[in-house]
Amino acid sequence: MKNRLIIDSHVHIGPRKFDGLRLAKIQLWHPFEKLKKNLDEIEVHGAVMLPYPEDIYRVPYATKETAQQAHDYILDISKNNPFFFPFYFVWSDFTIPDNLGEFKGVKIHRHFWSEPETYDYSGKACDRFVEAVVRHDLPIIFEESFINTKYFCDKYPHANVIIPHIGLANGRAWKVIPAFKDYPNVYLETSLVYPYEIIEAITQYGPDRIMFGSDSPYSSTKIELFNLLEHEDMKHFNEEDLEKILAKTLLKLLHVRL
Ligand SMILES: [Zn+2]
Asked: Does CATH place domain 7-253 in 3.10.450.50?
């Protein structure tokens, strides 16, 4: 592999095991050591670290304590690993933690097709939360229905929003790509997406608003890197563009100087 700086913009880790896949009693377990070993093998230098939804809100796993532990876990790791960035996963009460400034970003997440509409984006609590996030200059990973994504981005045009999976879980790429093209503060992340949709997104948005991610351990950094880089039409993009997509777009948003 070429000597490039690569950061995975979308990884879940946590201290606990879950009956994560439900189908065949396969347990989901992805502690930092496992992630680090996988990244070292393919010369990837760091990642955005997100807690699992299971630790934040999902029944029957989540409690206030598990949410606290999950956040403490990634904060701890970030102290000794400068290219591993902890994101705060906010639940629908929009609690602003005292240590918000220790995080490098936040995440708002609801699977609109199966989970109830719990976040109220029109309320004061959301306004206060976004105001605090913007004050700390943190980007917001936002996974929601298309209608709520549109509402949120229209309401808070000054917030930097990262739509994961090029909109796969926000109404699909074909809807999301054109809808947010003219929103300069909306970024797209590439995990779990068809290569042609990634290529379409880069072509329309330019590499300054696209960032590589994997959604590991649901996929893996290795698989998603291959998915991103190996399609024939990716060869249209030059090395400078790829450097942005693989790390620099994210690092600029996080104000990380190289
Ligand atoms: Zn994810």
From this structure: no
